[in-house]
C-alpha cells in the first residue's frame, strides 16, 4: 500500500513547496495555516486511498500464493484428496506408475494425486494426518550408482538431514531399479527405511521393481496386493470395476495464431528460435553437428563419432559427464500411425487437464499438431505398458481382439504370460499393435493421452573440456534389429543422430541437448594412476580422460600411469579410435594399451593376464579404477576379476576381497558408468 501511495504524494509536496516560495510576504500565521491545510489534505488523501484499496487486499496477498502452493497438504484439503503419490523419475516410468496409482484410488472411494517432490515442501509430510484416511505413496527410481533422480534430490537431502516426527504418517514405497547395477533399488530401499526411522507407519511392504526382468509385471504384482492392504487398513472396499476415465479433454483449434503453437520445444514457446541460457532439461541448447564420421572400418554395425558445437552457450562440462539429447521419432512411423487412424496429423489441438487444480495442465506442450506430438513428445517405439492396452481395449470392435487386450492388461498369470510374449518379447510398439489388430482404431487424442513421453537419451561425453571447451563429442552405435514378427526395429536416438549432417543449414544438423553432471571423475591429483576398462562404445569417457591427461602433461604436471583395457570384436573392423590411441601411447600419455579382440583371439581377459601389475597399481600406487559399458555382463565380469586379483595378491579370503573392492567404491576409487 505504501508503494501505491508514494507517487500520489509527490505532487502534493511539490505544490506546497512552490506556494511557499512564490509568496514569501506571507506572515508566519499564513505559513502555519497553509501548512496545516496541506497536512490535513495529505492525511485525508491517504486515509481515503486506504479505504478505497481495501477490496484490493486479496489481490495483494496473492503475491505470496506460490509459497502457499508448495504445500501439498493445502492442495489436498482444497481438492478433497487423501492419497498423494510422489515420484522420483528420470525417464518418466516412475511418474507413469504414480499416475496409475493415483487414478486407481477412485475405485476405493478415495481420491489421489500424483506429485513431483521437486514442486512441494516435503517437510509437510508430518501434517498429512490432518487429512482423514490419508496415505503417502512413493514411486522412487534409482539413477546411476544408487543415486536419487534429479527431481528427488532435494527430498533425499531433506530425508538425510530431517529430524521430523512422522508418527502420524502412513506410507508405502515402490522402487524402480535394475538388478544388473551394483546398488539395486538403493533409493526405494532408503526412502522406505528412513520414513520408518522417522516414525512413519508402513501399511504395505516395499515393492522392488527390476527393469532387467519385467518391471511392468513387478509393478502390477505389487499393486494388486497393495490395494487390498489399503482397503483393510482404512476399512474401505472397491466400489466396482476399473473404469476408463479420461484425464484430458481434446480441444481442436481451427482459428489459431501459428506463432502460439509448439513445434517441438521442451519448455518455453519459441525457445529454439530465441535461445537463452542456462540450458537444462526444460531448456535444451540447439547444438550444431560439426562432425559425424563412421568409426568402424567394416562389419554390419554403424559406430559413429559426433561433435556438437556449444560455442556461445555458456555450457560447461567435465570429463566423465553425460550429454543428454532429445531425439525425434522416424517420420515414416508417425505417418503410418496417422494413416492407420485416418487422421489429419496437421490438426492443431490441445489436451487440457480435466482436473483444473492439477499442476500438469497438459500431457505435453500445447497447443501443437498431432504430427509434432508424435514426432517430438511421445514414445511410439517402445512396447506399450498394460494400462495403455486396457484403456485401448474399449475401441476394438472385434470381440476376440478386445478380450485379448483386456487379458494382457489383467493380473492373471495367463494374461501376464501373453503380455510378455506377444508385446514385450516380440517388441511390438503401438504401430505394430494397431497393424496386428485391424479392429483396434482408437481416437488419436486418447492415444496421445496414453502414450508416455519421449525421453532424452544420455551419452558419456567422449572429450575433455580442457582440450575442447567449445564442443562435446559423442561415441555411439546405431541400434537396429529384427523382431520375432520379422519387423525391423530401429533405435530412436542413434538412427536420428546418424542422419545429422554437418555444415547444412536448418534442423538437419541441429541437436537439442544439455549436460548432466556425473560422479565419474578423474582423480584430483594428476599423479594418481588410473586403470580404465571400457569395451566397445564404453571407451567414450576414456577418450576424454586420456585427452585430459595429455593436456595436464603438456602443462608440465606430473601425470601418473594411465592404463587402458579395451575390447572389440575384430581388430580390422571395429577398433575404435585406433589411430588416436596409438598416438597417445607413442607420446607416453597412455602408459599401457591392452586390447582384446573377442572374435579374433582366444585370450580375452587381459585383466587377469596382467593381474600382478594391476594389484601393484591398486595396492602401492593407490590407483583409481573406472569401468564403462554394459552392466549386465561386462561390469559384473570385471568386478569378479578384481575380487580374484585382490584375493590372490592381497592374501584375502573371497568375502574379504569383496569387502575390499566395496570399500574402494565407497572411497571413490572404483567408479562405474554402466548401462543395461
Describe this structure in words.
Strand 16 and strand 17 (488-490) form a beta hairpin. With 676 residues, this protein is an alpha/beta fold.
Query: What's the shape?
Result: globular
Tell me the count of domains.
Answer: 4
Tell me the number of strands.
Answer: 23
Taking the alpha carbons of the first and last residues, their distance comes to 60 Å
Q: What proportion of the residues form beta strands (DSSP E)?
A: 15-25%
Give the fraction of residues assigned to helices: 25-40%
Instruction: Give the CATH architecture of the largest domain.
Output: 3-Layer(aba) Sandwich
Query: Which stretches are low in confidence, meaning pLDDT under 50 for 5 or more residues running?
Result: 1-29, 43-68
What is the mean predicted local confidence, pLDDT? 89
- Tally of helical segments: 23
- CATH topology category name of the largest domain: Rossmann fold
CATH superfamily of the largest domain: Flavodoxin domain
Keywords:
NADPH-cytochrome p450 Reductase, Chain A, domain 3, oxidoreductase, seven-stranded mixed beta sheet, 4 domains, Elongation Factor Tu (Ef-tu), domain 3, FMN binding, flavin adenine dinucleotide binding, NADP, about 40% helix, transmembrane, alpha/beta, single chain
Amino acid at each position: 500500500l505504501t508503494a501505491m501511495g508514494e507517487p500520489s504524494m509527490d505532487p502534493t509536496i511539490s505544490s506546497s513547496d512552490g506556494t511557499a516560495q512564490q509568496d514569501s510576504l506571507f506572515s508566519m500565521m499564513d505559513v502555519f495555516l497553509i501548512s496545516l491545510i496541506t497536512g490535513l489534505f495529505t492525511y485525508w488523501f491517504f486515509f481515503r486511498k486506504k479505504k478505497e484499496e481495501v477490496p484490493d487486499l486479496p489481490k495483494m496477498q496473492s503475491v505470496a500464493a506460490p509459497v502457499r502452493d508448495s504445500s501439498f497438504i493445502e492442495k489436498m484439503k482444497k481438492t478433497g484428496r487423501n492419497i498423494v503419490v510422489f515420484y522420483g523419475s528420470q525417464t518418466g516410468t516412475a511418474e507413469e506408475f504414480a499416475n496409475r496409482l493415483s487414478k486407481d484410488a477412485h475405485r476405493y472411494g478415495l481420491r489421489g494425486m500424483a506429485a513431483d517432490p521437486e514442486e512441494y515442501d516435503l517437510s509437510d509430510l508430518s501434517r498429512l494426518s490432518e487429512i482423514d484416511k490419508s496415505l503417502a505413496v512413493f514411486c522412487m527410481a534409482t539413477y546411476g550408482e544408487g543415486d536419487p533422480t534429479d527431481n528427488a534430490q532435494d527430498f533425499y537431502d531433506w530425508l538425510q538431514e530431517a529430524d521430523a516426527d512422522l508418527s502420524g504418517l502412513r506410507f508405502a514405497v515402490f522402487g524402480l531399479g535394475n538388478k544388473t547395477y551394483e546398488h539395486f533399488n538403493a533409493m526405494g530401499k532408503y526412502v522406505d527405511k528412513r520414513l520408518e526411522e522417522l516414525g512413519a507407519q508402513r501399511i504395505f511392504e516395499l515393492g522392488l521393481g527390476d527393469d532387467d526382468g519385467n518391471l511392468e509385471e513387478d509393478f502390477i504384482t505389487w499393486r494388486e496386493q497393495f490395494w487390498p492392504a489399503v482397503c483393510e487398513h482404512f476399512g474401505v472396499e472397491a466400489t466396482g470395476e476399473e473404469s476408463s476415465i479420461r484425464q484430458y479433454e481434446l480441444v481442436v483449434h481451427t482459428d489459431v495464431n501459428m506463432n502460439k503453437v509448439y513445434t517441438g520445444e521442451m519448455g518455453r514457446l519459441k525457445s529454439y528460435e530465441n535461445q537463452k541460457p542456462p540450458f537444462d532439461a526444460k531448456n535444451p541448447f540447439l547444438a550444431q553437428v560439426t562432425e559425424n564420421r563412421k568409426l568402424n572400418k567394416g562389419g554390419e554395425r554403424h559406430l559413429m563419432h559426433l561433435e556438437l558445437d556449444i560455442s556461445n552457450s555458456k555450457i560447461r562440462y567435465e570429463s566423465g559427464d553425460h550429454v543428454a539429447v532429445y531425439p525425434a521419432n522416424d517420420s515414416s512411423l508417425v505417418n503410418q500411425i496417422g494413416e492407420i487412424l485416418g487422421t489429419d496429423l496437421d490438426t492443431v489441438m490441445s489436451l487440457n487437464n480435466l482436473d483444473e487444480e492439477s499442476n500438469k495442465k497438459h500431457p505435453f506442450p500445447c497447443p501443437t499438431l498431432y504430427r509434432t506430438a508424435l514426432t517430438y513428445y511421445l514414445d511410439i517405439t517402445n512396447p506399450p505398458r498394460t494400462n495403455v492396452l486396457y484403456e485401448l481395449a474399449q475401441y476394438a470392435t472385434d470381440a476376440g481382439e478386445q478380450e485379448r487386450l483386456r487379458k494382457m492388461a489383467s493380473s492373471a498369470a495367463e494374461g501376464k504370460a501373453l503380455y510378455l510374449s506377444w508385446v514385450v518379447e516380440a517388441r511390438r510398439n503401438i504401430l505394430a499393435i494397431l497393424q496386428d489388430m485391424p479392429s483396434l482404431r482408437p481416437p488419436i487424442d486418447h492415444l496421445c493421452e496414453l502414450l508416455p513421453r519421449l525421453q532424452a537419451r544420455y551419452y558419456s561425453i567422449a572429450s575433455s573440456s580442457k582440450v575442447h571447451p567449445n564442443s562435446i563429442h559423442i561415441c555411439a552405435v546405431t541400434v537396429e534389429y529384427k523382431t520375432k514378427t520379422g519387423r525391423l526395429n530401429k533405435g530412436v536416438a542413434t538412427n536420428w543422430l546418424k542422419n545429422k549432417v554437418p555444415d547444412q543449414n536448418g534442423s538437419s544438423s541441429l541437436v537439442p541437448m544439455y549436460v548432466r553432471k556425473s560422479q565419474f571423475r578423474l582423480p584430483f591429483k594428476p599423479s594418481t594412476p588410473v586403470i580404465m576398462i571400457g569395451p566397445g562404445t564404453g571407451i567414450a569417457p576414456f577418450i576424454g580422460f586420456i585427452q585430459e591427461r595429455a593436456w595436464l602433461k603438456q602443462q608440465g604436471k606430473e601425470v601418473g600411469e594411465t592404463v587402458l583395457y579395451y575390447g572389440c570384436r575384430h581388430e580390422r573392423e571395429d577398433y575404435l579410435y585406433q589411430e588416436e590411441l596409438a598416438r597417445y601411447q607413442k607420446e607416453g600419455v597412455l602408459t599401457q594399451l591392452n586390447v582384446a579382440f573377442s572374435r579374433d583371439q582366444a585370450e580375452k581377459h587381459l585383466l587377469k593376464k596382467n593381474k600382478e601389475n594391476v594389484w601393484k597399481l591398486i595396492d602401492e600406487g593407490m590407483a583409481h579404477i573406472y569401468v564403462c559399458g554394459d552392466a549386465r555382463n561386462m561390469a559384473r565380469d570385471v568386478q569378479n576379476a578384481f575380487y580374484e586379483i585382490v584375493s590372490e595378491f592381497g592374501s584375502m579370503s573371497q568375502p574379504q576381497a569383496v569387502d575390499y573392492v566395496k570399500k574402494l567404491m565407497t572411497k571413490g576409487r572404483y567408479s562405474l558408468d554402466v548401462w543395461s
